[in-house]
Amino acid sequence: MAHQTSKIFVIGGTGAQGIPVIRGLIQDGKYSVRVLTRDTSNARAASIRAINPKKVEFIEGSFASEKTLREGLTGCDGAFGKFEFSDKDGPE
Description:
Oligomer: single chain
CATH superfamily: NAD(P)-binding Rossmann-like Domain
Number of helices: 3
CATH architecture: 3-Layer(aba) Sandwich
Distance between the termini: 51 Å
Order of helices and strands: EHEHEHE
Strand order of the largest sheet: 3-2-1-4
Structural class: alpha/beta
């Protein structure tokens, strides 16, 4: 029986932690990814797309947008996100 591919939503996928996570998921063969990034035309997005264009899709936007997060999560089986806040952005 063939394994069905799971789709994972990767928030901040063009960052230092996101790229290796995406590479690992795709190379595993069991996953495709939907990547949230601020700029789908930059070099990091292109390098992710080159891993396997059939298993990567992008959403351009911000993790601060509830609408974008809901759109990104729709149809996905899981998510990965790494967030860092400066003192001015974090909880008080």
